[in-house]
Amino acid sequence: MYAIGNDHTGVDLKYIIKKHLEEKGETVKDFGTESTTASNYPDIAESVANAVASGECERAVLICGTGVGMSIAANKVKGVRAVCCSEPFSAKMSKEHNNANVLCFGARVIGNEMAKMIVDSWYEAEFQGGRHQTRVDIISDIEKRQK
Question: Which end of the chain is more exposed for a tag (fewer CB within 10 A), N or C?
Fold first, then answer.
């Protein structure tokens, strides 16, 4: 199951991406707002990140104005490797090399079709393990040392 979350800037794009994932056969749990009235993206990011970290959802997509705020907030949750991408190559590499489990992007930065291309690249990529697993383990060790 995928989680999706958005703030007030990402309402329209959320529905497009949610439908896109459902067309791939994915179940999508929606944590986002339905309103264009200003909302606090860190609260939404935390809810989505907790769903991923707990195993309730396998992966997630977060959408705000730039994707940056959502990725910063989501990365505060242990076990989450959130990445902000504005193009497909970085999305693909974030999965292959970093096993990113949360994809973030900005509704004010990219268009609908680019968002779908980014999601597709990330969705289709597979974590390569090996030397990359060593690095992901180091990231996990950094998390464990935090109080």
Answer: C
